[in-house]
Design brief:
By secondary structure, the chain is of the alpha/beta class. Helix content is about 40%, strand content about 10%. It is built from 21 helices and 16 strands. Strands 6-5-4-1-2-3-16 form a seven-stranded parallel sheet. Strands 9-8-7-10-11-12 form a six-stranded parallel sheet, sandwiched between helices. It has a three-stranded antiparallel sheet with strand order 13-14-15, with no helix packed on it.
Length: about 575
């Protein structure tokens, strides 16, 4: 079958989110053909280029989310009226309840049933969203309209309308401009030319690698072309927005309106998807709380390449050969990892076990915040642990080291886990703990904080303590440092659990079955015709999606039979090499 893989800020670019698992998925499902539809986040990401793509990628189309030039479309009176109505409805759905902006409320919703009211608002948002998409398709673009003064005025009316959110009523003009700009950026995919029969319409299935903007093309392909949508979230987009908003110095009205907008969008994505695949139970609970139907959810854990850790987990670099007095932390250095608590905890560990060392392995997160946080951690380590020397004539040494993978001492990721007998995770915010799975594949005992999906991943194969509790973290580490046999048992159990649940093979097998499940329940969107051009009954057997000579019938899109519009056309042959197509070009 042909899969339209939808990404934002990741695959096929060298840097970004979800690139690794998308690449593993595409390479693992060589029997299918993939078309990539990628939204880039920054100019730098585009400049760094793509990774090498496998031959089953037939086509790549890209569009930037970080910039949008004016489309030059001038709306007539009717188009301006359509935009005002649709955007006004969208703003009203975001800003308040059903009574906002004078909307008609169904009788059952007016009777006071909260569920009915929520459903009415969800329908209102969806109708407005698709109304804007249809306007963009008819007029050739939406960028200028979304940036116009009319959009800001519609937001202002919705914020001042009866029933609007209390916080929204406090929005000032600068706040409205900020919200309008954010909505315009998120809705840029509505103006793309991807929603035609020879683009997303040629896919049997759209697979969004995330929610939010990445899933928008899938929503429109489903709306315009009837293509079923699969949504995978290893990190819930709405949760990520909430966490990011908490760190921004924006007005309360801006935070409230953007939270409402992303909440409505997430609910529509979950409602339209044929199936939703969270990466863990933690993400699954978030999706259910945001309106996802439990019957649509299929948990698919991320897959890790176990082979790269086999030498450490089973070979000569196993836990018996690791330094028994060394703790290892591996990850991206950023505030969410709470290395400050780890360093304070290590001070307590050193009081109980003076020979213990801590190796912090990882690069700072991109941007000035990551660099400054790393500098702060190094300064704290120097303050807590002055250089120590065994004698008067020996050179002092700090028991805490900060290192990066790729150096002479740690040439690879597996070597980072091999240098210690105990791996520590101290995060205060975590989604799916990839580093924890890597440590498990290396056969290492772990001590982790109870955040995100940590408990689900670790099972009973490691120790878990509350976050932001240095003393509890220290006590757990000391207990395992003093009991090498227990470390050995936990490490072996952790590796066995990781090999059972978190490998690339199980991930690919799960998605292969999900693809077949969705396609088997989706209505046929093409009419199969015989040599005379007449509709062929039972022309789509189960084998239609299996490579072979029977996959070469002549196809025509539903709604264009021979007696209406010309003769049918044979299916386009698959392309053997990726063909990059930028926005505005044909497929």
């Amino acid at each position: 079958m042909r899969i339209g893989l939808l990404t934002e800020g990741g695959y096929p670019y060298v840097s970004g989110d979800a690139g690794l698992w998308c690449d593993r998925l595409v390479r693992g499902l060589g029997q299918h053909e993939f078309d990539i539809y990628a939204l880039s986040r920054t100019e730098r990401q585009e400049d760094r280029g793509w990774i090498q793509l496998p031959p089953q990628v037939g086509r790549v189309r890209t569009a930037p989310l970080w910039t949008a030039h004016s489309d030059g479309v001038v709306y007539g009176r009717r188009a301006r009226r359509r935009f005002a109505e649709a955007y006004g409805e969208l703003a009203a759905a975001v800003c308040g309840g059903p009574e906002a902006a004078g909307a008609e409320v169904p009788a059952e919703a007016a009777a006071g049933d909260p569920a009915d009211a929520v459903g009415a608002e969800a329908d209102r948002f969806a109708n407005a969203l698709y109304g804007l998409a249809e306007l963009a398709r008819d007029e050739g673009g939406l960028v200028g309209a979304l940036r116009s003064e009319n959009a800001v005025r519609a937001l202002e009316r919705a914020c001042r309308a009866p029933g609007a959110l209390r916080t929204a009523r406090t929005a000032r003009v600068p706040d409205l401009l900020t919200v309008a700009a954010h909505i315009e950026r998120t809705l840029r995919p509505l103006s793309l030319d991807w929603y035609e029969d020879d683009a997303l319409g040629s896919a049997d299935l759209c697979h969004a690698a995330a929610g939010g903007a990445a899933a928008l093309p899938g929503l429109l392909a489903r709306h315009f072309l009837g293509v079923p949508l699969l949504v995978t979230e290893y990190g819930v987009q709405l949760r990520a927005h909430y966490l990011a908003a908490a760190t921004l110095e924006e007005a309360p009205a801006v935070r409230a309106l953007l939270a409402a907008f992303h909440g409505r969008l997430a609910a529509e994505v979950y409602g339209a998807a044929a199936l939703i695949t969270p990466g863990n139970t933690h993400a699954r609970r978030w999706q259910e709380r945001c309106g996802a139907d439990r019957a649509k959810l299929r948990t698919v854990h991320p897959g890790m390449e176990a082979a790269r850790f086999a030498d450490v987990g089973e070979g000569t670099r196993g836990s018996r050969c690791a330094d028994p007095d060394t703790l290892v932390w591996v990850g991206r250095v950023e505030p969410a990892k709470d290395l400050i608590s780890l360093l304070h905890s290590f001070a307590e560990i050193r009081k109980a076990e003076p020979k213990t060392r801590l190796r912090i392995v990882g690069a700072p997160a991109e941007g000035p915040d990551g660099t400054s946080y790393l500098a702060h951690c190094k300064a704290l380590a120097a303050q807590l642990f002055p250089d120590e020397a065994e004698g008067a004539h020996a050179v002092g040494d700090n028991p805490v080291s900060f290192e990066e993978i790729g150096g002479p001492e740690i040439p690879s990721l597996a070597e980072a886990y091999a240098c210690g007998a105990l791996v520590v995770l101290s995060s205060v915010v975590e989604g799916f703990p990839v580093g924890l799975v890597e440590a498990m594949l290396c056969g290492r005992a772990t001590v982790s904080t109870d955040v995100g999906a940590v408990v689900e991943v670790i099972g009973g194969t490691g120790l878990v303590v509350p976050p932001r509790n240095p003393r509890a973290l220290a006590e757990a580490c000391v207990a395992l440092l003093r009991d090498p046999e227990r470390r050995e048992r936990l490490g072996a159990a952790a590796r066995a659990r990781a090999l059972e649940l978190f490998t690339v093979e199980q991930n690919i097998t799960a998605f292969h079955g999900i693809y077949l499940e969705i396609v088997s329940h989706s209505p046929v969107r093409r009419v199969i015709v015989d040599d005379e051009g007449e509709p062929l009954p039972f022309g789509v057997p189960a084998e239609a999606h299996v490579p072979g000579r029977w996959t070469e019938p002549r196809l025509m899109t539903a709604g264009r039979p021979r007696w209406a519009q010309g003769a049918p056309v044979r299916a386009t042959a698959s392309v053997s090499a990726p063909v990059p197509v930028s926005v505005g070009e044909g497929a």
